[in-house]
Write a structure and sequence with these properties.
Helices cover 47% and strands 12% of the residues. It is built from 11 helices and 6 strands. Strand 4 (194-203), helix 10 and strand 5 form a beta-alpha-beta unit. The longest helix is centred in the N-terminal third of the chain and has 27 residues, at 61-87. The chain is elongated and about 65 Å long.
């Protein structure tokens, strides 16, 4: 028995448990089919793929809901309450009083999804839907940016644009400089409304660059869960390779060869190499081997660009 096969025999049982206890959308049967269809008798390929799957960041529906609540209640409203208390030189506040202040801020907030192509499949819509259906906000506190008027915003003090992931930030840049958003920014400035961009997951290095980008002045970016280089699959910092530089390089060489043979890249948008699944969808900076579909290769989780 090879070292690869021994690893697979041990870890696929663990992967079954992971699917049952931690993953909502992807079943063990889906995963096993994906391995068999794409790697067949290629034990080395299955070995690397299983290692990646065991270190994939999978966010269940409940995880996403918790991240949203954390981002709003603590990272936005909590920080606003804290800033207000510091200005008032009053750091003593009961939990009930703090909660009341957060609820008041929530009532003063209007939400809109970040949309790149104005299509219903976009992730910003899904997050807004979750906020409304979980009764975190009222339906009248939400609309698409093309429907938002000065009249509609006049009773609010906060405008929050929501999305699921931020990798390179290109989508945010396009959105922020679009003609309609520029109009909204002027309305918000006139009404004294603060604008936030709330995103579930982001890459810390790109986030730091975005926060310093002059073209994004006027919007405060808030990320609920920050990923680092240690989460990048092929980065030396990732524990997936147990600090074995030789194995990491062998894995890179393997997937370079796979790209030549099957036409599916192992690097995502802007050459990012995260393995992230948000329940039933993936960002384009996740490894394409998990979501791409080409002749001779099937996806594990489908996304809107899978078949391109």
């Amino acid at each position: 028995m090879t070292e690869y096969q021994q690893y697979l025999d041990e870890k696929l049982h663990q992967m079954r448990a992971v699917c049952l206890s931690q993953w909502d959308y992807v079943t063990y049967a889906d995963l096993n089919t994906w391995l068999e269809d794409n790697f067949n008798d290629d034990v080395e390929g299955k070995y690397y793929a299983t290692k990646i799957l065991l270190h994939t960041l999978y966010y269940k529906k409940k995880d996403i809901e918790k991240l949203l609540q954390h981002g709003l209640d603590e990272l936005i409203y909590g920080e606003m309450v804290k800033e207000q208390l510091i200005q008032e030189k009053n750091i003593y506040l009961s939990s009930s009083e703090a909660l009341a202040k957060v609820e008041k801020l929530k009532e003063l907030t209007f939400f809109m999804p970040l949309l790149d192509s104005n299509k219903p499949h976009e992730s910003g819509n899904t997050i807004i839907s979750s906020l409304v259906h979980k009764q975190y906000i009222k339906a009248e506190q939400v609309d698409f940016h093309w429907n938002i008027t000065k009249d509609k915003l006049s009773k609010y003090k906060i405008l929050i644009c929501v999305d699921d992931c931020i990798g390179s930030g290109n989508q945010l840049r396009r959105f922020w400089r679009s003609e309609r958003i520029i109009e909204l920014r002027k309305v918000c400035q006139e009404l004294g409304i603060k604008i936030y961009y709330l995103v579930l997951i982001g890459y810390d290095k790109n986030l730091a660059k975005l926060k310093e980008a002059p073209e994004l002045n006027g919007i405060e970016i808030v990320v609920c869960d920050l990923l680092t280089d240690s989460n990048r699959v092929f980065a030396p910092e990732n524990i997936i390779w147990n600090k074995d530089e030789n194995e990491r390089q062998k894995a890179i060489d393997y997937f370079e060869n796979l790209k030549k043979r099957k036409g599916v890249s192992f690097l995502g948008f802007k050459r990012l190499d995260f393995a992230v699944i948000l329940n039933d969808r993936v960002p384009n900076w996740t490894l394409p081997i998990l979501w791409k579909e080409v002749a001779g290769w099937k996806y594990l989780v489908k996304r809107k660009g899978s078949a391109k």
